[in-house]
Write a structure and sequence with these properties.
The structure is a single chain. With 264 residues, the protein is of the alpha/beta class. It has one domain (3-190): 2-enoyl-CoA Hydratase, Chain A, domain 1, CATH 3.90.226. Helices cover 50% and strands 14% of the residues. The protein has a 6-stranded mixed β-sheet, with helices on both faces. Strands 5-7-8 form a 3-stranded mixed β-sheet. Strand 1 (9-14) and strand 2 form a beta hairpin. Helix 5 (149-157) crosses helix 6 (159-168). It is globular and about 55 Å long.
Length: 264
């Protein structure tokens, strides 16, 4: 596999396990244009890798992924046509994760926000450090949660809770996320690696094809939902990309102040 072409994602392979590490630790693994492009391709590559049976996702440094890069957001505001490429990639990220027959395990080593949270939640099993927080604060930057959050949150925690957290952008402590079924396990940070390794070994010792095809079976309904929802979500996110509120949120982030939204 041509893993050497990846720069924003570090790819390591050992004993039929491929570990994908978001590799922009200096900005808390915020997703910029390059990382987004690589995310749209990496799950297709690992799915086709005959030497891989398990995929582990994690982040370099203190965070899993802090969500969207503010500089990239400004570029899409300035060049709205660039969002067309982003929209196509957003669908490829989600559908390539759902189409990957191999178990994808999220090792959420730190905060997971926005697209970072979406990727974690579309994984098959999610382990998080107890001091990590997870949430989808798209609305906090004047954006629609169009990258898949509106698909996966209701399936995990129900519509009432999903709408509460998607409309407020609240970041949840890992233990609370575990208690409500958003993630599988919240564990002490110094035990996270060992707990994930233990689970990976359990899967590796199992019947590989049976495990893969069980995942495929469980994902059928989720794939149908994603196909019925994603185009509308991304279209509305594209509309929010050119709103005054979104520009105000980007400005406020740069100026380290609270945004003043006007509903425009």
């Amino acid at each position: 596999m041509r893993y050497s072409r990846y720069e924003a994602i570090r790819v390591e392979k050992q004993d039929r396990v491929v570990t994908l590490t978001f590799n922009r630790p200096e900005v808390l693994n915020a997703v910029d244009e390059q990382l987004h492009e690589e995310l749209a391709q990496i799950f297709t590559d690992v799915a086709a890798d005959p030497e891989c049976d398990i995929v582990v996702l994690t982040g370099a440094g203190r965070a899993f992924s802090a969500g969207g890069d503010i500089g990239w957001m400004q570029k899409m505001i300035d060049e709205p046509e660039a969002f067309e490429k982003t929209a196509m990639e957003a669908k490829r990220i989600i559908f390539s994760m759902l189409d990957c027959e191999k178990p994808v395990i999220a090792k959420v080593n730190g905060h997971a926000a926005g697209l970072g949270a979406t990727i974690a939640l579309f994984s098959d099993v999610i382990f998080a450090a107890e001091d990590a927080r997870i949430g989808d604060p798209h609305v906090s930057v004047g954006f629609v949660a169009g990258d898949g959050g509106a698909v996966i949150w209701p399936q995990l925690v129900g519509y009432a809770r999903a709408k509460e957290f998607l409309m407020t952008g609240e970041m949840l402590k890992a233990k609370r996320a575990e208690d409500m079924g958003l993630i599988n396990y919240a564990v002490p940070s110094d035990e996270l690696d060992a707990r994930v390794d233990q689970f990976v070994q359990q899967l590796l010792a199992g019947a590989t094809k049976a495990i893969r095809w069980t995942k495929v079976s469980a994902n059928i309904g989720l794939k149908q939902l994603a196909h019925s929802i994603m185009d509308a979500c991304i279209s509305m996110e594209a509309q929010s990309n050119v709103t005054a509120d979104h520009q105000e949120a980007v400005n406020a982030f740069r100026e380290k102040r609270q945004p003043v939204f006007t509903g425009k």
